[in-house]
Write a structure and sequence with these properties.
It is a single chain. This protein is an alpha+beta fold. The protein contains 6 helices and 5 strands; from the N terminus they run H-E-E-H-H-H-E-H-E-E-H. The strands form 2 sheets. It has a 3-stranded antiparallel beta sheet with strand order 3-5-4, with helices on one face. Strand 1 and strand 2 form a beta hairpin. The chain starts with a helix and ends in an 18-residue tail after the last helix.
Length: 159
């Protein structure tokens, strides 16, 4: 007697074969791929199935799930900004100011001796620009003035 929560949970990564007279779901490469695309990862799927059956999953099933996820070529995307300070500014001081504000600065230098700052992952409540605003506020609090670069405008011919 599956509950609606069980049906909903299984439908996140398995295809429904039948719901009546008994619920049956089938794991397939496509269903696992849809789950990965929706933000789930293999560990979450395995943990759910393990909790539901009350024991470790058989090794052949684990191997098959791992094979399916390897074939799914997911790329995680994270926002960052590139800071290019004026030549007379010390990037070590800017790095220190940003890190004291809780921001992550990459060790690899950006072009023109700039800094690459990884922005915090946003939430549903805050727009993506909130992380950029937070970085600029941290810079202002330490006496730096941020200025967005203007991209060159294309003429109507597109050149």
């Amino acid at each position: 007697r599956p509950t609606p929560l069980h049906i909903w949970s299984l439908s996140a990564f398995a295809d429904a074969e039948a719901v009546k007279p008994e619920a049956r779901f089938q794991l397939r490469p496509g269903s696992v791929g849809r789950a990965l695309g929706a933000g789930f990862d293999l560990d979450q799927i395995v943990q759910y199935l393990t909790r539901q059956c009350g024991e470790s999953l058989p090794e052949p099933l684990l191997r098959m799930l791992r094979d399916w996820t390897v074939g799914y070529r997911r790329i995680r995307i994270r926002r960052a900004i590139v800071l290019t300070p004026d030549p007379d500014l010390a990037t070590d001081e800017i790095r220190s100011a940003l890190e004291s504000g809780g921001l992550e600065v990459l060790d690899d230098a950006a072009p023109d001796n700039g800094l690459i700052v990884l922005l915090p992952v946003g939430s549903e409540q805050s727009p993506p620009s909130a992380a950029e605003d937070e970085a600029l506020a941290t810079l202002r609090a330490h006496g730096y003035a941020g200025q967005w670069e203007q991209s060159p405008r294309l003429d109507p011919a597109g050149t």
